[in-house]
Amino acid sequence: MDTINRESYGAAADKLAAFAASADVQRIGAVGEEILAVAGLLGRERPLRRALADPGRAGEDHAALLRSVLEGKVSDEALDILATLVTGRWSGPGALLDGVELLGVTTLLSGVDRAGELGDVEDELFRFGQVVSGDSRLAAALADASSPLEARVQLVKDLLGGKTKPATARLAELAVTGFGGRGFESSLTRLVELAAKQRDHSVAYVTTAAPLTEADEQRLAGRLAELYGREVSLKIDVDPRIIGGMRVKVGSDLYDGTVSRRLAEAKTALAN
């Protein structure tokens, strides 16, 4: 988010945090679903989202318009949080829609956090992503925008129903719809990172040639925590093709100490 959008989102996030601090898990989840439903409405109704992001109108006018549309259709809690969101300045209708989607997901994650299931959901989302990326037919089916969305959502329900936390399946469904305008795999990765952020963790994507021992994982997590000044959640992928060593990606930082990289560099040097 740019500065304007970040400030506008921050005010709504503060209101959400205050609500989530006192509400029960079921209520938080219900409000999250309402906010996501409003995101769906804005996605369909371009004139409405343009009006709500119009820089020529006062923030209070945006909030009044939103209330006139949603009054009696969503809870007071959801309406108050969303009114705070649209009162702020946004760089455009697309940015506002992204903000509403993010707010809905953050609300769902707040409920999962209160239930003590956030770490499990984070890991389940990552593992589901690995399953999908390892099956080319499944990956193609979930990413196929020409296929009816309902069919792709049902496929996720069939794959995950009863096998993961309910929140994991719900978030995976959101990934299919293209969370934040992303493709399925990018959406899923973003949701994993948002779950980690909710726990005040960074995510480290680790690729190794062979499984790490528990002691190795603890040492690596400890070193990364020292480096980044916060807890780090390891997402480990075993790939024998790297031959040996390790590749670690945290945000935009990449540490590649794999044997395959060294061999490639040596081959390039010899060719030159």
From TrEMBL:
Source domain of life: Bacteria
Membrane topology: Peripheral membrane protein
InterPro entries the record matches: ATPase_OSCP/d_CS, ATPase_OSCP/dsu
Keywords in alphabetical order: ATP synthesis, Cell membrane, CF(1), Hydrogen ion transport, Ion transport, Membrane, Transport
Protein's cellular compartments: Cell membrane; Membrane
HAMAP family given in the database record: ATP_synth_delta_bact
Annotated function: F(1)F(0) ATP synthase produces ATP from ADP in the presence of a proton or sodium gradient. F-type ATPases consist of two structural domains, F(1) containing the extramembraneous catalytic core and F(0) containing the membrane proton channel, linked together by a central stalk and a peripheral stalk. During catalysis, ATP synthesis in the catalytic domain of F(1) is coupled via a rotary mechanism of the central stalk subunits to proton translocation.
Family statement: Belongs to the ATPase delta chain family.
Protein's UniProt name: ATP synthase subunit delta
Gene behind the chain: atpH
